[in-house]
Amino acid sequence: MRVVLADDSTLLREGLVRLLAEEGHEVAAAVGDADQLIAVLERSVVTGEKPDAVVVDVRMPPTHTDEGLRAAVQIRERWPGVGVLVLSQYVERRYATELLTEDSEGVGYLLKDRVVQVDEFLNALERVGAGQAAFDPEVVRQLLVRSRRSDPLGTLTAREREVLGEMAQGHTNAAIAGRLHISQSAVEKHINAIFEKLDLTGTAGYSRRVLAVLRYLGT
Predict the structure, then answer these.
(1) Which of 211, 1, 11 lies closest to 124 in space, CA to CA?
(2) Is the Cβ–Cβ distance between 56 and 90 less than 8 Å?
(3) CB neighbours of 52 closer than 8 A, spacing ≥ 6?
(4) Ranges in the chain annotated CATH 3.40.50.2300
(5) Domain Response regulatory: where (predicted)?
């Protein structure tokens, strides 16, 4: 894949450049702030060399608050074919749910600790580049714990919660079946039950899968 990196940590940025190069990916640019990231994307449109995916930190200069997130949202709006993998030091609920609000295809959210688990990081990046979703299991777990305070999902069985948790990580039905060691038809039945219990069976014009995940995240 062609990848653009944006992180103000020179050590992490250069480490990712080397890792991706060793795995056969092309790092088109590696920058230290969100403005440079957007500038790289704009130039790539002119040259006809848009990246397949970008990896962007949430907090970057100048304020170190949400520059990376705002750049990620802008990229999703202006170049929807470019996958966006967001890195964050902490589980930040607003950032994860904002990325899911419109469309979770080609979007990922990983904790930075996950980067040291090379296979998981590369798998997430490849899924995002292929137009799939990839959400860190720890992010999903912590968001679920928070959402239980109001718990709109109390009617779900333990297995249905497990299936919904896998959906929130961006896995397909086939992948969920393999990860939970159940049949794909069983996964489909659980998902239909989830839609019914969350009152999403009559929803038109929206992805029930995305709406179910948003409900799961407590929005």
Answers:
(1) 1
(2) no
(3) 1, 2, 3, 82, 83, 129
(4) 2-148
(5) 2-127
Question: How is residue 146 written in tokens?
Answer: 């928070």
Query: Over 90: is that where the pLDDT of 69 sits?
Result: no
pTM for the predicted model, two decimal places? 0.68
- The CATH code of domain 2-148 reads 3.40.50.2300
Domain with CATH 1.10.10.10 in the chain: 158-218
Return the top range by mean pLDDT from 3-12, 127-136, 202-211. Answer: 3-12
C-alpha distances (whole Å) from 28 to each of 4, 86, 90, 161 are 5, 17, 27, 40
| Burial degree of 65 (CB within 10 A; 0-12, 13-18, 19+) | exposed
- Does 85 have pLDDT greater than 60? yes
Angle between helices 158-168 and 137-147 (to 10 degrees): 130
pLDDT tens for residues 194-213? 888 887 765 555 578 887 88
In this structure, are residues 92 and 98 in contact, taking their beta carbons and an 8 Å threshold?
Answer: no
Kind plus residue range of the DSSP H or E element containing 27? strand 26-31
Q: Which CATH architecture has domain 158-218?
A: Orthogonal Bundle (1.10)
Given this model, what pLDDT does residue 219 score? 46
